[in-house]
Amino acid sequence: MTLPSAHDVALAAERRTAARLLLAHPLVASDGPHADLFPLIRRHADWLGKRFHQVLGYRLLVDSSFARLFKAGLGAGAGHRLERSTGTPFTPHTYACLALALSVLVTAPEQMLLSHLVADIRAAAADAEIELEETGRASGKRIMVAALRRLVEWGVLIETEGQVAAIVQEAGGEALITVDRERARVIVAGPLAPARDGADLVRRAADPGFGGPRIYVRRMLVETPVVHLDELTAAERDWLRTRQRREALAFSELLGLEMEIRAEGVALVDPDEELTDLHLPGTGTVAQAALLLAERLVERLRPQEPGHPSTGGTLVIGVAVPDGLVDELLAGLITEYGQRSNWQRGYQEDLTSLREAVLDLLVRMRLMARAGGLRAEGEGLPEGYAEEAPEGRPVTDVHGARPSGDGWVLLAAAARYATRVVVRPATSAGKGTDVQEELPL
Amino acid sequence: MGAAASGAAKDADEEVRRRLDAYSYLSAPERLEHVAIMRVFCGTLLADLAVTDIMGRLRESLGSTAGLDADTLTVRLEQLVQWGNLLRSSHTVKAASITEYQRSRSRYQLSKLGERIQRDADGVLAEADAAREVSNELLSLVERGLRELAGLVTVPGGIEPQDGLERVSTLFVQFTEFAESIRDFYAYLGQVLSRYDLDSAEYQGFKQLLLDYVEAITEDVAFRAPRISGALDTLWPHIPDLLDRLDTHAQGLAGLSPQGDNRMELRVQRSRGREFADWEGLRGWFTDTDGQGSQVDQLRDATLRALQSLLANAKRMLRSATGEMSRRKDLLRLARWFNEAAPQDAHDIAVAAFGLYGARHLGIPPATDEVVPAYTSWWTGPVVEVPVALRERGSRAQRGGASSVEDHSAQKQRLREAAHERAAARAAAADELRSASGRFAEIRLTSAALGLLLELLATALGNAQLRRRVTSDAEREGTAGFDLSAASSEDVELGIRLTVQRTPGARTVLHSVDGDLELDDLELAVDRTSGTADGETEASVS
Q1: Across chain A, which distance is largest between two alpha carbons, in Å?
Q2: What is the enclosing helix (H) or strand (E) of B295?
Q3: What is the Cα–Cα distance from B61 to B67, expressed in whole angstroms?
Q4: CB atoms < 10 A from the CB of B512, how many?
Q5: What is the count of structural domains for chain B?
Q6: Which of A106, A122, A181, A273 to mutate to test the interface with B (most CBs of B within 10 A)?
Q7: Of B373, B403, B434, which residue sits at a domain end?
Q8: DSSP 3-state assignment of B10?
């Protein structure tokens, strides 16, 4: 075996950079904000295409002016969403408007006037039997602008003269729009045609297909912050537990992500803290409050003797958060940190809005959740998906590892942000001098 | 003069506007009724009709206008008169009764303009939106006709007028028909190719139409055009002569107007081929006469454009096997799902449909220098170190001078506790060592005790070396090896002293949970120091 040369190291670094960029931004334009890295994607297009297909079952399309990684769905409650420039999440109406605009654009001519585009979108709405909010009204116009602005951001629309925001102007502002039909065609990645309805689409899009548990688990690891064991079927848990160390090595090499393997699940963490769309720990009132809340909740609710069944412990993936505890802790945090850390006044004064924002962030980071259906119990599985582990293989039992009902649940991974160092139970100290081995869990 | 000219131009504009008014009936809300009425008039030659006659004929036609009552019909008729499509009849009738008089007053007949427009409108309505065949066999007839005419005209004595008249008329009828069919065909092609939504069956059809048919036409035209131009060139010098001759032979309507007296301004439209301009048009079709390119050239361009357009369509279709229409249909369905979904579900649908989300990961990686067993629980396992700035201030920036004083009491408390714990652990280790002294071989030390012992041993050996140097400097007497006769070290705080004795052949073994430590030629003794303020120690042998 020879040592890797400087060239090999540089090559691996370039590929890792390109792969990370595509995972963070599945549509990269040669003239967009990541124009400087686009040549890397072009250079390693073949290698990247093969790797993404082999590892994650994703298709990569590299064109002369853009690169598109066709990602799969993440199932229900993924916690991703499109937002307006103001940070307001898209409403169902705004999404509908976006889909209508795309339906116009895939057959649109090279250039069109904004007013024609709007008229075509309204015609499409009529075809789809959707009642668009009266576009004469300001709110209706703003919805239209939000959808079109998103298309401009994606590079599907190019504002040749004027801006799409002209719609909201009085007296019919006009703009000349150039349409990139190629890009309009690569916006849709999900299996629209076979899907029966929205819920069916969500289910089908997350279906790993022939890749089975291998592809599904890897996608969850790469795309989501934490994978708790009860969010996997028995077959998926089996695959993960037998493969986790090798996968850790592979993801470290391929993407520079470090794997944290615990009894309750696995998380891939980015040491550079770049490969993520949300930051926790992060800056700002909500991120700070969320971190502090998680820390205090863990202190209050940490279960007795949690562990892994194979070492005699009790698997606890989530603990119920009593009603009112979140509010109580948040109120305390406001008193303690609000002034000192200069929290946003709106949040300091309105506990409800702070709670909503903080819980939203913690849920999206998979540190908290609403109690509800779990994949381990068959929730959200595509039809004909093999969920049982190969016969005779012992799999960690996750039954009852998180509370049922309809309250909030604090998830195990939140405990990694607790500040108090916990004294390990005496059992591990009494084990003697043996090397600690990975158990075949 | 200028005023007169502008006045004349104004009149001309007024005239054009008036004539165009005759089209109004086709765009009025009641256009279906108008058309039905006009058809009644067009159905008869040179007839004026009364309201009742028209009503009768409308009933016979059984159309949607069959139920029109007399009053409404009169209103419609008056309107048509106003637009200039109908004329009030000047036909006078001697009436025998009031009713008959009134009826005879309201008789209508067709205007020339009205008739022409109605005929065109019927033509447009009758025309299916389909490709019209190009009668390119006519082109060869045109060619033959021209050649024969050229031959006849150039013979001495010229052409016999009646024969010439027949030949010219035939020629122009054929040519006009051919030119029209070509124009129709290309208009149809243009309309079809401007669509982006051809499905593959349509595309197949058009491919045949274009690649085969268009090519055939263009080739045919390209083949005939030079011959026709040639014949026209031969004919050209004789045309004025020929036209004169024809005019003298058969004057047609023009002959009816009083010679040299144009005051009546009776305008006559000559039949095709009798004016020099008609011939110029014919020639312009085949040869480039005015630098704008002949019709043949334009035809070639149009064909090229059509082929390009078809290619673009083909390219698009290859790119998406499913076709744009189904893609559009899918997107419309998606829009409907979005519209019906609850806000949270809409987000999930968007993730599934677009897959344009970025990967998401937690911050702060696990410490890499410690291997944590896979069964370790998150609840009790190692935690990550959140930078103080992020945790305490929610900011990554280094602390600026202006920020408020921070409260470190919690951390201080923690540090104090930690220090206290450490001190307690060391004291326990010292106790353990003291009790173990002299019987190291028999007992197993804890990890903390061994750590403390090694700490003391290292210090003792260091002290011994120092002493050796001092000794040798003072007495200038070299000794081999270390002088460990009285090497020792102590920790006053813990009240513990280690004495190391060098005894060749001796062997001390320390057992501990971390493993065994063997010391050759050394003997160890641990005892208590009774610490005093000035650090003086008193040995007490254990």
Answers
A1: 83
A2: helix B295-319
A3: 11
A4: 20
A5: 4
A6: A106
A7: B373
A8: helix
